[in-house]
Amino acid sequence: MSYRAAVLLIHSGQIALIERFRQGIHYFTFPGGHVEPGETSEQAALRETEEELGLQVVIKRLVAEIWWNGKPQFYYLVDPVGGTFGSGTGEELTHPAPEKGTYTPMWMPLDQVLDQPVLPREVAQIVVEAQTSGWPDPPFMLHE
After folding, report:
1. pLDDT tens per residue, range 46-105
2. What's the confidence (pLDDT) of residue 6?
3. What is the DSSP string of 70-87?
4. Averaged pLDDT for residues 117-140
5. Is the pLDDT of residue 130 over 90?
6. Which of 16, 19, 122, 138 is 20 to 30 A from 116, alpha carbon to alpha carbon?
7. Which pLDDT score is estimated for 30?
8. CA-CA distance, 106 to 94, in Å (whole number)?
């Protein structure tokens, strides 16, 4: 089964996102990608963060597990420990495929997250609410 791992990286009142333009649709998503065979979701989150953002991070905790199209997506709260934001070398950045659209790493102020098309919306809501109420414990679970 193919599943996805993503990160929630917050710094100075902003969150790291990937701005996407795909098939005429503009939206933002949390950095991450598919878990490769033989890889844990945590390992995939670390690898994808380096590929997409150019950063090395450490995982603090699982925040949410969201099921979409019959597949789980894991969202981890992380802290940066090295690298340079925007220096990712993932294939989607270095060899963009027109049918897959664009991938642009960026920082979004937390007070704009719910005003923009940040997907999935459930995770965007958790990120904003966590700034005043703390992170969900146990992790938020949403099954189809």
Report:
1. 999 999 999 999 999 999 999 988 899 999 999 999 999 999 988 887 877 778 888 999
2. 98
3. TEEEEEEEEEEEEE-TT-
4. 95
5. yes
6. 138
7. 98
8. 16
- In the chain, the DSSP E strands lie at 4-11, 14-22, 25-29, 32-34, 55-68, 71-83, 102-109, 118-119, 140-142
Helix (H, G, I), strand (E, B) or coil at 40: coil
Look at residues 62, 37, 83, 36 and name the one whose alpha carbon lies nearest to residue 139: 62
The C-alpha angle with vertex 95 and arms to 55 and 25, in degrees rounded to 5, equals: 85
C-alpha to C-alpha distance for 81 and 55, rounded to whole angstroms: 8
Residue 129 CB burial class (10 angstroms; 0-12, 13-18, ≥19): middle
